[in-house]
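Listing S7. Sequence submitted for prediction.
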Amino acid sequence: MNLYSYQYLIHNFSASNYLFIGLVILIATIISCTAFFYYRNRNNPRFRNLLVLVSLIGALIIVMQTGQFLEQQNSDTKTGQTVTVLKKIAKEKQVPLNQMYASSNNLSDGMTIQAGNHYFVLHFNNDLSNYRLEPVKLVSSPKHINKSSFSLTSIIDNNNDYGTVALKFIVGFIMIVLQINLSGKGNLAPSNAVDQLQNYILGGIIGGVIYNPQITVMQFAVILLIWAVIVFTAKFLTGQSNLLNRFINGNPQVLIDNGQVNVTRSLQSGINANELAFKLRTHGITSVKDVKNATLEQNGQLTVTTYDDESVNYPIITDGQINKAVLDHQKLTETQLEEMLAQHHTRLEDIYMAQFVNQKLEIVPYPTKK
């Protein structure tokens, strides 16, 4: 059993206040120094970013420690009550305060008090307004704690929950960056259904797991890896099968052709008249008669060309797969396309992208193996 000395309780009662004040002063000093360097180098954006970063970290630490400080203040109030009781018992038993010990810094019924060489059990009524002492004998010698120790480990333990959340944020951030880079995208802006679904579920996974203390960082990483495997499996399969690609990602849909609106296709694509008119206005077009071609892309954007513009030419072959919608739009058959490929001495699976421009097939092949 641990018995805490009167000096220990008094020290803990005030130490937290000094630590908090010292921490605030230290952070303010660091921020001030960083601000001074930024002022001296205002034309260098790195110092501005450094100032913002240091300020945010400082604010984070202060907010975290403020919460602990308020909790400590509540604990100090209870410690103050214990100190008051120890003073009364010391006076009653005529024992110096440096020989007074308590088994807890919070008043509670049944706590042990040492006054000199004598031990007592402290009993309280329900509202802790009065007490009585009952002499007792200890089975084993207690451990006397006279000095409090300040260690970095105690601070880390107190902030363990925040540390776990921060680590989960870092893991989630790394996974998002990896998925962006591995998918060849510069950002998370969706270009098809898989990208949109990936953003929704990835956000749900990260948001739902980060604040759940029952899910460990390792489990979080495994969940993210499982989702990454599913996403890249879908990307791989859509690249291998044109049918699966159309099923998952869909095809561009021509809604307006030569000034004529395909109402049936527009409604099938979920585009009503108001939405179509709005999308046209965003392109500065007020009349469908001015539109040569308007195509609804897989990401929901409308690509519009007028009679004054050059026609948008979609690839007729992508990733070794024939785009049949474009093939039909160009009024070509697969047989004709195969004849063109034979003229170029090229196989379909060797083509990265091909477009039909000015009645000619322009081919971009995959790099040849050396």
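Caption to Listing S7: primary sequence and predicted structure tokens for the chain studied. Residues 78 and 328 are 82 Å apart (CA to CA). Residues 150-157 have pLDDT under 50 and may be disordered.
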